[in-house]
Every structure is written in C-alpha cells, then in structure tokens.
C-alpha cells in the first residue's frame, strides 16, 4: 500500500518536472558592483542622455545600480517610467545623484555647481570641450581627486574616435535634411525640393570638408538626387570620401577661383571643416557670401570652432536661422541635439560596453590599463592631470598615466 502511494507521488513529481516552469531572470554577481549616476543636463539645449532604458536594464541585470535624476531623459522622449520599469532608481534632486553614485555619466562637461556636488574619488565620463574648458573647473576636479574621461577622445578597436564618428555621421546626414527644410516654402525659402526629378535640374550643394560630416552629408544629398561638390585641402581625404561613397562625385582641393564659382552658384553650402586644435579655417569671405543666390542656404556645422563662413554667427535651436545678404544662415553648434533620441541610441551603444567592462574587470583602473582606446580618453587620474595639451594650455604639471596606474595597482 505504502509503495503504491510513493509510486503515485513519484509519478506526480515527474509530471510536475516536465511542466513548463516560470523562470526568473538571473541577476549576475559581478566582481565590482557599480553605482552609476545620470544627472539631468543643465547645459543650454542639451537634449541627449548617455543611456537608454534598455541599456539600463542590461546594466541592472549585470548587478549594477543606476540612479537617474527625474526628467533626465525627457528631452530625448524617454520618460521616468521608461527607466524605472527597467530597474533604474529615480531621484528628484541632483544632489542625490552625485551623493549615491560612484560613476557620473553625462553629456555636457560639468560646471562648477555640479563639481561642488561630486564626491572625492568619483569617476566622471562626459564631454571635455577644450574650447570652453575653464581652469577653475579643472582645478576643482583635481582637488577632489576625480578620475575624468573625455568621451570625445574614446577610441574603438579600429583606433577611430567612436563618439566623434557617431555624432559626425548624425550631423552630416541631418545637415542635409535641415537644408531641405529651409529651401522649402515652409520656412520662407526659395520653394525648392532638395534633390532632383525628371526634367528639372537638381539642386546644387557645396560641401566644405571631406571628413565624416562631409562624407555623410554627401551620401544623404546624393541619395536625394542633388548635385554635390566637395572641397577639402587634403587629397587623401577627398580620395577616401570618393572611395567610401562608392560613386563619382565632384571633388576639388581648395582653389579660390573654383571654390568661389561653386559657392556663388549653389543652392546650399555646408561648412564642415574642422581644426585639430583651435579655430576652424574661415575660407568663405563675406564678399563671396554677398554674391550667393538669393534665398540660398548656409549650414555652418563648424560654428562651434568659429565657422567656415565670415558671416556666420552662433544661433540656437529656438532661433536657428538669420538672414544676411539675402542668404539663410543656420549656425546651431549642437545639431545632434536636434535628433536627440537617435543620438542617444548611438551614444548608449558606446558607453554601455565600457560600463560593463568596468564592472567585469573590477574597476576603472584595470580597464584603463588593458584598453588603450579608453586610456586615450583619460585626462585626470585620481586628481592628477594626464593630458599634456591641457597641461601646456593652463600651465599645470602633467603626469604620465601609465606610471600613475602602476603606482596605484
């Protein structure tokens, strides 16, 4: 009798084991748990956010905590609910983010009120923006023994500046779409469709600069059917652009007579020439702009470095254009924030693996030591300045990062 009962129980147990079971998502235990803080941006019209809700979910699933200031993602159309549902902890004051986090990740460089909220020894991942860097901010970060990484200097496995490349691709493509808007009647433009259709001459676009911005502007313009001319002082860059695009496009070195003719007959001129350090080259004079066609459009992408056109003046997303010599000028320095959600997706693809590596490798020190692309982005390590260009500019002693890492191991 009892053996029959046991046999019955055994059969029931077997059947239960064969039934579909509810599985719990495993939260992995990592070598180093990270407390990642995302404050709301205070920089004017900065709409991007470094991490998407799904990236937060990945970090939380890997055992990390993400502290998000309320409405930090609102400008990129990510709500607090989007983040909280993926495991982020929402806080309602900036101080809590800086107090509770070990790593602060943000877009714009920190300003003094934000630095004052930081804890000694924190890790900061943000933009550096050398053109606007202030000595007082630098000294304040060093005094708190912060380890600071500039995401503009992050390099990937192919030695490409990953964030700069991603943002340049976005800005290049978006600049053509902006030009299309201001050529149309909607914004009191000439009433042209950017591109071309059968029997109608295509719009003419001149692009100054054959870097990533210029390449993606050319790609977008060509795909819309426009006639494109690209100018750059470097034959190498022009050849690379030609090869990357995969189709023949008018290219020229900067010959003043040829360039002036192209500018004065085009419908759209895009300034995308960058300087490695300092001001971008201003190669189009006001006299040349004054001879451009009425209601033609200038998009000066390089305005954050001074601009490629003598007539350029900084504008913003609220008032993006002005007219000078009957030419529409669009000179907004932060074009990527115009498409903040797309830009956020591009950024999160770069930042999330780095944060996971910091957790997996047991801290930022090991990641810096093992990955030269991340080491390249460090400009302050435990309060010591490690970027010689910044050191020379502000007359601050600079220390060798490799030696500092070894001494802290």
Automatic annotation (TrEMBL):
Residues 183-331 form the Alanine dehydrogenase/pyridine nucleotide transhydrogenase NAD(H)-binding domain. Coiled coil: none annotated. Residues 37-171 form the Alanine dehydrogenase/pyridine nucleotide transhydrogenase N-terminal domain. One of its GO terms (cellular component) is plasma membrane. GO terms for biological process: L-alanine catabolic process. Transmembrane segments: none annotated. PROSITE patterns: ALADH_PNT_2. It is an enzyme of class 1 (oxidoreductase). SUPFAM superfamilies: Formate/glycerate dehydrogenase catalytic domain-like (SSF52283), NAD(P)-binding Rossmann-fold domains (SSF51735). InterPro entries: Ala_DH, Ala_DH/PNT_CS2, AlaDH/PNT_N, AlaDH/PNT_NAD(H)-bd, NAD(P)-bd_dom_sf. One of its GO terms (molecular function) is alanine dehydrogenase activity. Keywords: NAD, Oxidoreductase. Its EC number is 1.4.1.1. Belongs to the AlaDH/PNT family. This is alanine dehydrogenase. It comes from Mucilaginibacter lappiensis.
């Amino acid at each position: 009798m009892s053996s029959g009962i046991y046999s019955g129980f055994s059969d029931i147990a077997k059947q239960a084991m064969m039934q579909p079971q509810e599985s719990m998502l495993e939260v992995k235990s990592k070598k180093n748990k990270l407390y990642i803080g995302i404050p709301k941006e205070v920089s004017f019209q900065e709409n991007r956010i470094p991490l998407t809700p799904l990236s937060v979910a990945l970090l939380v699933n890997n055992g990390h905590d993400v502290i998000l200031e309320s409405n930090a993602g609102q400008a990129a159309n990510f709500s607090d609910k989007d983040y909280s549902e993926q495991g982020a902890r929402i806080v309602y004051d900036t101080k809590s983010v800086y107090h509770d986090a070990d790593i602060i990740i943000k877009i714009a460089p920190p300003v003094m009120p934000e630095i004052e909220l930081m804890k000694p020894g924190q890790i900061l991942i943000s933009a550096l923006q050398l053109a606007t860097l202030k000595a007082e901010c630098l000294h304040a970060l060093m005094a708190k023994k912060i380890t600071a990484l500039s995401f503009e200097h992050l390099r990937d496995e192919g030695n490409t500046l990953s964030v700069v490349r991603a943002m340049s691709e976005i800005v290049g493509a978006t600049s053509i779409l902006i030009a299309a808007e201001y050529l149309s009647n909607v914004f009191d433009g000439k009433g042209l469709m950017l591109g071309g259709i059968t029997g109608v001459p295509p719009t003419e676009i001149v692009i100054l600069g054959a870097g990533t911005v210029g390449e993606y502007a050319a790609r977008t313009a060509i795909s819309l059917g426009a006639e494109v001319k690209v100018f750059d002082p470097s034959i190498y860059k022009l050849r690379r652009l030609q090869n990357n695009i995969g189709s023949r496009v008018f290219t020229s070195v900067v010959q003043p007579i040829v360039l002036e003719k192209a500018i004065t007959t085009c419908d759209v001129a895009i300034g995308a020439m960058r300087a490695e350090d300092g001001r971008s080259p201003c190669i189009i004079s006001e006299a040349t702009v004054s001879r451009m066609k009425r209601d033609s459009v200038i998009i000066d992408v390089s305005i954050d470095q001074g601009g490629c056109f003598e007539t350029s003046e900084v504008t913003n997303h609220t008032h993006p254009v002005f007219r000078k010599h009957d030419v529409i000028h669009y000179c907004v320095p932060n074009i990527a924030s115009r498409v903040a959600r797309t830009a956020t997706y591009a950024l999160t693809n770069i930042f999330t693996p780095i944060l996971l590596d910091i957790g997996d490798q047991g801290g930022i020190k090991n990641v810096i030591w093992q990955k030269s692309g991340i080491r390249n982005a460090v400009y302050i390590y435990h309060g010591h300045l490690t970027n010689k260009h910044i050191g020379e500019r502000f007359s601050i002693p600079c220390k060798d990062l490799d030696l500092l890492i070894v001494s802290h191991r």
